[in-house]
Every structure is written in structure tokens, then in C-alpha cells.
Write a structure and sequence with these properties.
Keywords: Membrane, Transmembrane, Transmembrane helix. This is Iron ABC transporter permease. The termini are far apart. The chain has one domain. It is elongated, with a radius of gyration of 16 Å. The protein is mainly α. It contains two helices and no strands. 69% of the residues lie in helices and 0% in strands.
Length: 52
Amino acid sequence: MINPQLKWKQRLTFLVALGVLILAVIWNLTTGEYPMSYSQILKTLMGQGEGA
């Protein structure tokens, strides 16, 4: 069984990583670094985007 202290650290690490990912996506959209529409980004994240 997983130690409760480690389980708490695992959840905290996941939340921090998720927050960084969301902030990176928002930053890329607002700066115009990657000119993609929201629907294209969602399709790409789900693996249904256009191939390179």
C-alpha cells in the first residue's frame, strides 16, 4: 500500500505539473507563438489533429 505521505506528494506534483501545462498553453495562445484555433488545439491534444 502507498504511504499516505507519498500519495499527498504525488497529488501535489500532478497539480503543479497540470498548472504549468495550462499556463504554457494559455501563454502560447495569447502571444500568437502558434497560430492555431482552439478547436485545432483540442483535436491535437486528443490525437485527431492534422499530420505534419
